[in-house]
Amino acid sequence: MNECREALFQGVASHHGVDVALVSQYRVSRDIVVDSAVILGFAILYALAGYRLAGVIRRRFPSEEWRVFLIATVAISVLASIVGVIVGDFWSVLIENFRMGSGHLSYRIERIPWRLHWGAAFICGLVVFWLAAAVRYRIPIRDNTLPSFRG
């Protein structure tokens, strides 16, 4: 594998007229702007989904049932965060595939920032969900029934 990699780096370096060390250095470098946009984009989508799901929980448990609301929020936040980590991983790999223009990422997949920080993504997912639930708990529940018009 190392021999193949060295031959590939040598070919790329000679094709582009650069040093092999530079090609090797670029192999491990990442575009911070793109990586940040991928993570921030998913974080916004996750926050919106968490806000909506917290609204469902809030409508199910009125203010006087705050203990049950809290238990449901913690339980669902764990599940939502696990799903968020999995979907976020898929999202980041999908964007990387699109960026590279290929379905073959090889060892590059292990350098995607999302894959390196699953634990942090899980914790952030919990915190974002809890913040969304706190905001939803403070907003009064609207009555969605239509007014009756009697003439």
Describe the structure.
This protein has 151 residues and is mostly helical. Helices cover 75% and strands 0% of the residues. Helix 3 (32-60) runs antiparallel to helix 4. The protein is rod-shaped, with a radius of gyration of 23 Å. The model is unreliable at 145-149 (pLDDT under 50).
> How many angstroms separate the termini?
83 Å
Strand content: under 5%
Radius of gyration: 23 Å
Kindly report the average pLDDT value. 86
Tell me roughly what share of residues is in helical segments. over 70%
How many helices does DSSP assign?
Answer: 6
Structural class: mainly alpha
- How many distinct folded domains? 2
Give the number of DSSP strands: 0
Major β-sheet profile: none
State the shape. Answer: rod-shaped
Which stretches of 5+ consecutive residues score pLDDT under 50?
Answer: 145-149
